[in-house]
Amino acid sequence: MMTDTDKFKQFVDELQKAVEQGGLPRDMLDFARSMLIVGGDMVNSQAIIGNNNVINVYSQASTPVEKKDEWNESTLLADALTVYREEKAVEQSKVSEEPYPGLSAYRIQDASRFFGREQAIAELTVELERRQVTWLHGRSGTGKSSLIQAGLMPALLKKDTCAILVRSVDESPTLALKKELLKRRWSNDLKLSGESLLQFLSKVDEVLKGRHVYIFFDQFEEFVIKLSEAKQDEFARELADCVADTSIPVHFIFSLRSDYFGETTALRKRLKDRVGGEYLVRSLKVDEARRAIVGPLERFGITYQDGLVDAILQHLGSSEVDSPQLQLVCAKLFHTLPEQSKQVTFAHYQKLGETKGIITDYLKQVLHDQTIIPPNQYKAATYILSTLVTLDGRRDIKRASDWYDDERLRLLTLSWRVDQKHLPTSDSALAMQAGSPVTVVNFIEHVKSHVSAQGEALRQFVNDILERYTRDAQKLFVDAVILSLRDARLLHEIQSEDGELSYELIHDYLVEEVKGWLDEDEQTARQLRGKLVQLQLDFNQHKLLLNAKELGIIASHLSNPKLLLNDTDKRLLLLSAAVHNKAQQWLDICGTNGIVWLRDACQNESLPIEIRQGSAAFLGELNDAESFHNLLETAERSDKASKHVWLDLLSRYLDRSTTNYHLPSWVSRAVFFKQAELRINDGRDERREISRTATISAFICGLITMLVSSSIKSPFTALLVAILYAAISSVIGFIFAQGLTSTIQITRKWPFLWQSLAAIGTGGVIGIGLFLTLGAQINVWFVGGIIALGQTISNRYKDSIPSNVLTALASALIFGLALFVLQDQYWWREAGYVVSVTVFSAAYLFSAERQKK
Question: Which residues are CB-contacts of 796 (< 8 A; sequence separation ≥ 6)?
């Protein structure tokens, strides 16, 4: 994996090549060095980017991962446990200089300033020793994590036990436990990685020589939120096995929010009668809250003015007090206390707006404090915080990489201001004009405009470099914002399963405030973004595209300013639209990249054929000559097995293109038959509708003809004969519609004269049978040719001749001709024949015209 330093070196090497080619000033190299990482191999060096923002880049020399065969795994585990216990002992011996943690949880090193839970610690320590499994639950904000880390773990460690804190975000609790103990010694190649929980804890017990082990699974609600049922069942079985084996002195403590406690019913039932104890962690009682306020300041020699603690408690709540609110208020009072002052006074408390003002303004104050969140990070900071709240009002967890690819953060990166001193000098061809707002985006555009006249190869080369630079700049920008938010104690950092850092809001008390930032557009965009993520996943895994309805929904929200589509989204939407023959709108959105994506899709044999076909057809509609030549060349050199696929793609391209291309004779013949097959398949719906009309109208007209010409005296027999006659007429009408419409579809791109002759010939031949039936006269066979001509004109000039005018003229012509050719002594028979032929003609042509609208 390339480090930032390696990327920097590669970037500078590429720029050096560009300089040597000419057209790119040498001081661009200096710009690269200042915009990325200053210096070469370094430890604790600085990358200076933005408006005097300094980001510390720590490069820690990593110890080589010991190979499996170099370690005895028992020795490895023993060493890991020794180091783990020593680290906890060191943490416990530390004394924090902060009396109040704010929204953060108390940790082991905060035990000496953790007040108010003395009774709970004493009771629970005894309970934990007695039970194999204990469930700690309480609503959010009651201080469960603080009770565990600063209360129970230090108390248990004093008794020469081993207390382990585990948090599994998106992995099995068993795996999270192993990683927590082994830390950097962990490897998936270890045999320990495949062992069950019971097997692993048995080895831990051997190392610890019978010492009691207390395993705290904190924030265990993530177990039911994040893990699949299969992983939950697997852990439940492993836990039950451990609980059943009483020879190992191990105790499991699960801490979670009360609103998720019911979700653990199946797990608790699996343990049967060994479910263990259940302890409800409540908010602080008044006397407990009083000690939590006063106690931490005692070692600083600071006191509260008489009556102030009571006032704070009254403002915080009557009978119970939430720890996060208390910590926020007290931390604010302490940090704003005048220097040398040894008492927190009423005046100071009221100046800060009392409890309500402190809590309400906390988030706003942090975000608007330019020493904490620089101005050019403000929008990105609020956006990142908003992504950590779900639409239903819960905290969410995001990986840093989720933000590295985020389109809105990319746009914010492009507006990131660049320090003027890191730009090319004023005598350089790349120098920016004095006073111009120097941002990443306008510097990139400035560089592009400068090199555009130096040749296509250099322009593309520099464009590629700048694109990679933009991605690196976004990563650095996001990291800078995350660092600011974390230092402001607004973000909680979590180590994910694969070692990548994830983040969540420091506490649920921020959720309501942050959720209030989400307006209607933002909520809609968030829902669509979630849908697009799932659709992208479906495409990557199963090559599934959006259906027409899903495309329509997203298209209807394109005017939403909060819906920002990245290139991955645009590509998926464009390919889906090409399959549904609705690609033009999405091509306008994709810009020049869209043509490239469609070309790549045509040539990508790993994609489903319908994607390649849709792309080829739309490229033909665009008359993209490069695609034509690529398809033709590939078809000519492909083997026999794949040649038919490339000819199919070429046929689809040519079917939509309005350009006349010269084709080799063998390709021309193959394409003709492919296009005929293609047009017949594509015109299936049109033929079905026209044929339905022809069948029904022929049936009705057959009845009319038979009823006016029949000499059968029996009404019943006459009716049966008429129905049979009408059925025969409907079959012939169906054949007429299928044959004529297919001919017109196949000859769609022929010159009008040749298409008309082909249609008239087909209509005339099939019409001999049809109109002999409907008109009872062979003399009206030519009516089929007239209808064929009418349908051809309708098909070719559908935008200029209204359907009703065309239908009326054709019907009148047929009517007049029929009167001329029919000679019968019974006038009603002549009239019946004429009506029959005219009704069919009018219905047929009207249906054909309607299909073109």
Answer: 752, 755
φ, ψ (nearest 5 deg) of residue 437: -70, 110
> What integer is the mean pLDDT of 174-179?
90
Beta strands in 444-547 (DSSP E): 491-495, 501-505
- The whole-angstrom separation of Cα 494 and Cα 170 is 11
pLDDT level of residue 752 (50, 70, 90 thresholds): confident
Cβ pair 372, 383 in contact under 8 A: no
Helix (H) or strand (E) holding 321: strand 320-321
Query: What span, in angstroms and rounded, lies between the C-alpha atoms of 201 and 210?
Result: 11
- The CA-atom distances, in angstroms, between 439 and each of 334, 432, 445 are 40, 11, 10
- Burial of residue 622 (number of CB atoms within 10 Å: 0-12, 13-18, 19+): middle
Q: Which position has the token pair 């030549």? A: 629
Smallest CA-to-CA distance from 145 within 97, 108, 113, 100 is with: 108
d(CA 838, CA 844): 10
Q: Model confidence at 21, in pLDDT bands (50, 70, 90)?
A: low
Distance CA 506, CA 643 (A): 60
Distances (CA, A) of 610 to 152, 478, 577, 701, 752: 62, 39, 11, 42, 31
Give the separation between CA 684 and CA 738, rounded to whole angstroms. Answer: 10
Q: How far apart are CA 56 and CA 309, in angstroms?
A: 41
The distance of Cα 719 from the centroid of its chain, to the nearest Å, equals 66
State the Cα–Cα distance between residues 659 and 496, nearest whole angstrom. Answer: 55
Q: Which of the residue ranges 82-96, 381-395, 442-456, 751-765 would you say has the lowest mean pLDDT?
A: 442-456
* CB contact set of 326 (below 8 Å; sequence gap of 6+): 284, 289, 292, 293, 312, 316
Within 10 Å of residue 58's Cβ, how many Cβ atoms? 8
Rounded to the nearest angstrom, the gap between the alpha carbon of residue 568 and the centroid of all alpha carbons in its chain is 9
How far apart are alpha carbons 29 and 35 in whole angstroms?
10
Pairing of strands 162-166, 213-217: parallel
The encoded tokens of residue 418 equal 């660049």
Q: What are residue 634's phi and psi, to 5 degrees?
A: -65, -40
Helices (H), 213-300: 221-226, 229-244, 265-270, 286-294
* pLDDT at 146 > cutoff 90: yes
CA distances from 149 to 93, 162, 661, 778, 844 (A): 14, 13, 76, 101, 83
| Integer angstrom CA distances of residue 539 from 485, 533, 544, 575, 667 | 34, 10, 5, 11, 34
Q: Is 13 exposed, middle or buried (0-12, 13-18, 19+ CB in 10 A)?
A: exposed
- What pLDDT digit, counting tens, does each position of 278-293 carry? 899 998 999 999 999 9
Q: Is 380 within 8 Å of 477 (Cβ atoms)?
A: yes
Identify the burial level of 116 via C-beta atoms within 10 angstroms of its C-beta, where 0-12 means exposed, 13-18 middle and 19 or more buried.
Answer: buried
Question: Rounded to an integer, what distance in angstroms lies between the CA atom of residue 242 and that of residue 250?
Answer: 8
566 near 595, Cβ under 8 Å?
Answer: no
Q: Is 766 helix (H, G, I), strand (E, B) or coil?
A: helix
pLDDT tens digits, residue range 352-361?
Answer: 888 877 877 7
First to last CA, the chain: 58
Cα–Cα distances (Å) from 510 to 369, 378, 491, 830, in that order, read 17, 17, 10, 88
Name beta bridge partners: 321: 284
Q: What is the pTM of this model?
A: 0.56
Q: In sequence order, what are the residues at sequence separation of 6 or more whose Cβ sits closer than 8 angstroms to the Cβ of residue 822?
A: 775, 777, 779, 780, 830, 833, 834
| CA nearest neighbour of 206 among 85, 80, 73, 78 | 78
Strand partners, 22: none
